[in-house]
Amino acid sequence: MLDRLAAAWERHDAEAYGELFSEDATYITYVGTFYRGRRDIVDSRRTLFAGFLKGTRPADEILDVRFYGPGTAVVNGRGDTYRGKRPAKPTKIQTHTLVRDPDGPWRIAAFQNTKRRPLMEAVSHRFSPGLVPSSER
Fold first, then answer.
1. What is the DSSP letter of 130?
2. pTM for the complete prediction?
3. pLDDT tens per residue, range 70-104
4. What CATH topology corresponds to 2-126?
């Protein structure tokens, strides 16, 4: 599913990208823009692929996948966009909430993208070690 999303991005195909979202999906960008519905997602992607994201590719790294029944999954990962060389460590944390109709494909029902602030993380972890996630200890 997420490979198909990346492939649509690499082709800059806003329609194919949007088709992977549910009709009522929500999409929150790292700058805080909130989109509701597949059409809104497609329209914004079309604009981004022709402008800010022209010539970019996505970089994704899955950190965790959890299933909450046969038709719901939450995927947490890191992501980024790039031109040229792929970044060694993506700079955003992302959550995809996936849903599946009983006889249909998986689709993204909600997406959240948050820009990491490594310096702020390092400072807070230095002064409050209890904030360091157990996976990083």
1. G
2. 0.88
3. 999 999 999 999 999 998 889 999 999 999 987 88
4. Nuclear Transport Factor 2; Chain: A, (3.10.450)
